[in-house]
Design brief:
The chain has no helices and 17 strands. The chain is mostly beta strands and about 260 residues long. The two termini are about 35 Å apart.
């Protein structure tokens, strides 16, 4: 194989072991590190482990890029942390990291909940610590369908969170009193409040089954939803100012099991 000077080079491998299965024997039979995200300082990463019911933290060694494992924080047994996102205060880029208001929002697949945490940074430079603020259902004030599995989370604009709900088809109005209701999995939209809590805004049909991933365009007026079990991508029109989804404008079928959708802008 010809040498590629810019090819990635493996620096480190960290293995996780689970002493015994978690409360959900199907999804928690072993560790499932589901995502790795960089914190706002760029010096730490966190990793939600769905199988171990914990969120792992790591410090990035600035000289060589190696990871040093910090204290993980445990979550409710059987919750299954899947994906997370950091949200900064408006002045985050100007203030030192210890003076910033940094929040972490974690989506739990097995309980279909989202929890907000306040992040604090120790003066000695160690990994951030997290204090729970609030836990809400990803379905807002609606009943949670049996078998539902929360998936993706994304910050839309500066003050909205969007979450996809899989395996939980609900009956939605087709937009006309003469049309039959449509069955679809859903997208949840929440507004971020200043104290770290969330205000549920709406539950909107994703356009099909198993919204594994979604992406909002730069203008904020379109949402592309990758529907894994429907084998298609649906484009939803969105009110970028108020945050509400207005309806489908396009779709592409026959794509197989779609797991990711990204705007080419």
């Amino acid at each position: 194989m010809e040498y590629e000077p810019n090819a990635p080079v493996l620096l480190q491998t960290i293995n996780f072991l689970l002493a015994k299965p978690g409360q959900n024997p199907i999804r928690q039979e072993m560790c499932h590190p589901h995502q790795v995200i960089l914190d706002p300082s760029g010096k730490f990463i966190i990793c939600p482990d769905l199988g171990a019911d914990m969120v792992r933290t790591f410090a990035i060694t600035q000289t060589n890029g190696m990871l040093e494992e910090g204290p993980a924080f445990l979550v409710a047994p059987g919750a299954g942390p899947r994906h997370a996102i950091f949200v900064n205060s408006p002045s985050a880029h100007e203030a030192p990291i210890m003076a910033r208001s940094v929040l972490l929002y974690v989506v739990f697949e097995l309980t279909n909940t989202i929890t907000s945490y306040k992040a604090t940074y120790p003066p000695d430079g160690g990994c951030p610590r997290f204090k729970e603020i609030e836990t809400s259902s990803t379905f807002g004030n609606n009943p949670v369908p049996v078998g539902a599995a929360a998936a993706e989370i994304s910050l839309v604009g500066s003050d909205l969170l969007m979450i996809s709900n899989r395996n939980s088809p609900l009956s939605f109005s087709a937009g006309s009193s003469e049309s039959s209701p449509v069955m679809s999995d859903s997208l949840s939209i929440f507004r971020l409040l200043s104290d770290g809590t969330l205000k549920f805004l709406e539950l909107y049909p994703a356009g099909g089954s198993f919204p594994r991933h979604f992406s909002v365009n730069k203008a904020g007026d379109l949402v592309a939803v990758g529907l894994q079990l429907s084998g298609k991508v649906v484009i939803l029109k969105r009110d970028a100012e108020k945050g509400h989804i207005l309806g489908p404008v396009a779709e592409v079928d026959g794509l197989g099991e779609v797991t990711c959708v990204v705007w080419d802008e």
